Amino acid sequence: MMMLQDGSTQLLCLTASSGVPLFTRGASKQLPFSVIGSLNGVHMFGGGQGVVLSCCETESGGKVVWRVFQDSVMLIAVSGEGQSGASSSKEEEVRLQRLLENVWNCMVLVLGQDELVNVRNVERLKRDLRSCFSLIDQLLEEKQEGILGNLTHCADSLVPPNPTLLQEAVDGFAQAADSEFGCLIVHGRIATATEKWWRLAPQEVVLLSALIRSLSASASVSCDYPVFLPQGSPTVAHRLLRFQLLPGADVCVLCGPTPTLHRAQTGLVGRFWSPLVETLRDCLAVGERCLPGSVSLRPDVLALLLINRETRRSVSCVWTSTYHPLGDSPSPSKARCWELLKLVYIFSMSRYFTREETLCVSPEERAERANTEDFLLGFSHQPQQCYLVTEECKSYGLQTPQHQLFLLLPPSVPTFALRTVATQTLSDIITATGF
After folding, report:
1. HEC-encoded secondary structure of 320-374
2. Measured between alpha carbons, how far is 355 from 92 in angstroms, rounded to an integer?
3. What percentage of residues in the chain have a pLDDT greater than 70?
């Protein structure tokens, strides 16, 4: 069977009952229709025999993952041999299963569950699904540096230097807009949000952030966009109002019929945010570091991902390090560090650590967790720390009741010192920010 050869990932969407193609995204060269038909046919054949086909590996090292949602839509992810070769088979399967789950919820977010489950006109559904393409392409894009929420289902966050002022402004702005759901997005990450925004399902927060990034890429300074909440309100739409405060800084609210976009733009934005222009600029200055200048980190830390397990928030950053001990090989590139950070997270979560998510767990993810539990039966305890040594770098994972920290460090850092570096880094960040 002809599969992808360029290391990319292709997504196929079909009707579950008849196998009619709805769209394909990703990969510069699409799979032939005969291959798409075969992928659908083998899944349907297995279903007829009482077997659920969820994943397989090709002879060339690629990966194919299937998932049917609501007995209505089938999503298939196909990764090329280069992509699968970047990680082990297990890590690649976890990544693709998470991708399919995200794409389905993205479709619900934009179109609503009813239109996807009760398909009355396939051709109309094909046209309507085009409105999801920018979001789906964002999920497929592997080079989104600094955006890991699609994988972790934790909100990509930025810790501002003056959180109190911004929190008061977001709370007041949302209340004036007849809403309890508001957030401030800086450089594509959440700087602060109302309490009710954080109470949304973690995946809803992640997808709303992705949608806001997509809307921010347009030329408009404000927009009024209907959205469905995949977990909280999959059949009734809400309004997402977005306003650009400064380039790179947007404020958003989820609301009902009121206020109008014009009223919010003219009567509320200036009232709440004009006095905070300098505060917003200070927040923008934090940039990709995601942490304020009050946080001092060791020079040998190449990259980190810190997750707050209670709030489902995360901060992640990669530094272009000038730390090169004598005889040490050059540090991995910035793009490579982001890739390695994702692989370390998947490696640790699929083998050692536990995830707490409020979402409904899919059969595929339930099976994945069962495999993890079987692996953990070899331990007399729940692992709280793990490390991995490769030619490129050393990595360390640390889990506490409230946090998970994943670090990348140069090979020159002694292995026995990794634990000390990780605990010191975690303590430094929490002490300085309270994250």
Report:
1. CCCCCCCCCCCCCCHHHHHHHHHHHHHHHHHHCCCCCCCCCCCHHHHHHHHHHHH
2. 18
3. 87
pLDDT digits (tens, 9 = 90+) for 17-53: 888 999 999 877 778 888 888 888 888 888 888 888 8
**Beta pairing, strands 181-186 & 155-156:** unpaired
Could you tell me if 180 and 231 are in contact, meaning their C-beta atoms sit under 8 angstroms apart? no
On the CB side of 177, CA atoms within 13 Å amount to 35
Quickly count: other Cβ atoms within 10 Å of residue 215's Cβ: 20
Sign of the torsion angle spanned by Cα atoms 191, 195, 197, 201? positive
Q: How far apart are CA 50 and CA 174, in angstroms?
A: 50
pTM: predicted TM-score of the whole model, two decimal places: 0.88
Contact status, residue 152 vs residue 345, Cβ threshold 8 Å = yes
The distance from CA 93 to its chain's CA centroid, rounded to whole angstroms, is 16
Distance CA 22, CA 41 (A): 16
Contacts by residues 285-288 (CB-CB < 8 Å, ≥ 24 positions apart): 286/158, 286/159, 286/160, 286/161, 286/186, 287/187, 288/145, 288/146, 288/187, 288/317, 288/318
Classified as helix, coil or strand, 355 is: coil
Q: Which two tokens stand for residue 350?
A: 């699929």
Return d(Cα 199, Cα 333) in angstroms, integer: 37
Q: Are 7 and 73 in contact (CB under 8 A)?
A: no
- Residues in CB range of 57: below 8 A, 6 or more apart: 63, 64, 84, 89
Helix (H, G, I), strand (E, B) or coil at 168: helix
pLDDT category at 398 given cuts 50, 70, 90 is: very high
The one-letter code for the residue type at 138 is: Q
Amino acid, single-letter form, for residue 205 = V
Please tell me the distance from the alpha carbon of residue 8 to that of residue 82, in angstroms, as a whole number.
Answer: 7
Sorted by sequence, the CB contacts under 8 Å of residue 186 that are 6+ apart come out as: 158, 160, 248, 249, 280, 283, 284, 286
Cβ–Cβ < 8 Å for 11, 99:
yes
Closest of 181, 188, 166, 160 to residue 247, by C-alpha: 188
